[in-house]
């Protein structure tokens, strides 16, 4: 079982996704996994979360990508079979009983600082996720397309 308290003091990226053994989801989870070191440098971790069971997660992670699986990933995979977590974050597709393709960034104090839902057919950009995380971590006003090292806005 994963608890938000375990991540207190660090940034947390909750990667909600519709389901295991699907087409778009593994591309996103693998892409973020390949950039785990970059996330770590930002004092952040990720948790992948869907409404699939822990048994389905395990089977998906133990199945090679070339056989339709996810393969090993560097982050925790959480299961929400009761839909309570997805409902709490407002990312449950009630009609299908699955998580929406959503990204939630929680700050070190446990506050939600970013919440974005994508269409289920469109994968998320890890570059954009890291850009937003950098902007949030800066604690400053960041204009559109701001990147680490760019000037901040002044009030």
Oligomer: single chain
CATH C-level label: Alpha Beta
Straight-line distance between termini: 43 Å
CATH architecture call: 3-Layer(aba) Sandwich
CATH superfamily: Glutaredoxin
Query: What is the number of helical segments per DSSP (H or I, 4+ residues)?
Result: 5
**Biggest sheet statistics:** 5 strands, mixed
Quickly count the domains. 1
Per the CATH scheme, the topology name is Glutaredoxin
Class computed from helices, strands and strand pairing: alpha/beta
Describe the 3D structure.
- It is globular, with a radius of gyration of 16 Å.
- It has one domain (4-138): Glutaredoxin (3-Layer(aba) Sandwich).
- It is an alpha/beta fold.
- The strands form 2 sheets. Strands 3-2-1-6-7 form a 5-stranded mixed sheet.
- The N and C termini lie far apart (43 Å).
- The protein has helices at residues 24-34, 36-41, 54-62, 84-88, 126-138, and strands spanning 11-16, 44-50, 76-79, 92-93, 98-99, 101-106, 112-118.
- The chain has 5 helices and 7 strands; from the N terminus they run E-H-H-E-H-E-H-E-E-E-E-H.
């Amino acid at each position: 079982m994963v608890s938000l308290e375990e991540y207190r003091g660090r940034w947390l990226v909750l990667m909600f996704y519709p389901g295991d053994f699907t087409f778009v989801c593994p591309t996103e989870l693998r892409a973020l996994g390949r950039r785990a070191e970059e996330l770590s440098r930002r004092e952040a971790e990720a948790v992948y979360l869907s409404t699939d069971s822990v048994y389905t997660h395990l089977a998906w992670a133990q199945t090679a990508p070339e056989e339709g699986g996810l393969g090993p990933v560097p982050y925790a995979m959480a299961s929400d079979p009761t839909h309570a977590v997805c409902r709490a974050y407002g990312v449950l597709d009630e009609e299908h009983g699955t998580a929406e393709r959503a990204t939630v960034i929680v700050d070190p104090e446990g506050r939600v600082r970013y919440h974005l839902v994508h269409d289920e057919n469109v994968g998320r950009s890890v570059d954009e996720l890291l850009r937003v995380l950098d902007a949030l971590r800066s604690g400053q006003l960041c204009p559109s397309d701001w990147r680490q090292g760019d000037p901040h806005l002044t009030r």
